[in-house]
Specification:
The protein is an alpha+beta fold. The protein has helices spanning about 1-20, 80-90, 95-100, 105-115, 120-125, 130-140, 165, and strands at about 65, 70-75, 150-155, 155-160, 170-180, 185-190. Strands 3-4-5-6 form a four-stranded antiparallel sheet. A two-stranded antiparallel sheet has the order 1-2. A hairpin with a 2-residue loop joins strand 3 and strand 4.
């Protein structure tokens, strides 16, 4: 027993200085429930738009803008807003807006290569609106949903998917999206 102490004690003494070589920074600190209305705490809580977070997030009510001439433009700065824009186009029966502002250029090109107009992408999704809603219900905050698996699949392209166990009863288990022209655009939905 004393032989092992003779080895362990000097080893610990040698490794102790390495424990002090860690840089610690607080990037964001607030209580778990501090975002709730009326919550109070010892520290000042920054308003949502003052918190540092990667890409600037567009407020949900600003994803659809209408110009003076009546033309609409859809923008999305995250997966949740992209899904909402898909539903907006389906619910308003607007395939032109879907192709213009939701469908990615890569998907449009793929449709052309297969000899189909891009509006066919809208026609393929429209009958499955309920199945798309079931997917959205599993990840209502897009990539910010706890348990949502986010993978980088290319330059500016992300794959959002739910766990295979949750996806078992669903037709779709996720979506691929890409950053184009200042907005996330739909590459396509992942089927099982």
């Amino acid at each position: 027993m004393t032989d092992s102490r003779n080895v362990i004690v000097p080893l610990i003494l040698l490794l102790m200085p390495l424990a002090g070589c860690i840089e610690e920074r607080v990037i964001r600190r607030e209580g778990m429930l501090m975002g709730l209305p009326g919550a109070k705490g010892a520290q000042e809580i920054l308003p949502e738009d003052a918190r540092p977070r990667g890409l600037p997030q567009l407020k949900d009510e600003n994803t659809v803008t209408e110009a003076a001439d009546g033309t609409k433009t859809l923008r999305s700065t995250n997966g949740r807003q992209l899904m909402k824009n898909v539903f907006y186009c389906i619910d308003n029966d607007d395939p032109k807006l879907f192709v213009k502002d939701v469908l990615s250029q890569a998907s449009r090109n793929a449709m052309f290569q297969q000899g189909m107009p891009p509006v066919e992408a809208y026609n393929m999704l429209r009958p499955y609106r309920n199945e798309l809603q079931a997917l959205y219900d599993q990840m209502p905050q897009g990539e910010f949903t706890p348990g949502c698996i986010v993978q980088t699949i290319g330059k500016g392209a992300l794959r959002l998917r739910i766990d295979d166990l949750l996806a078992q009863p669903l037709r779709y288990k996720g979506l691929d999206m890409i950053w184009e022209r200042g907005s996330y655009r739909l590459m396509w939905f992942l089927q099982k």
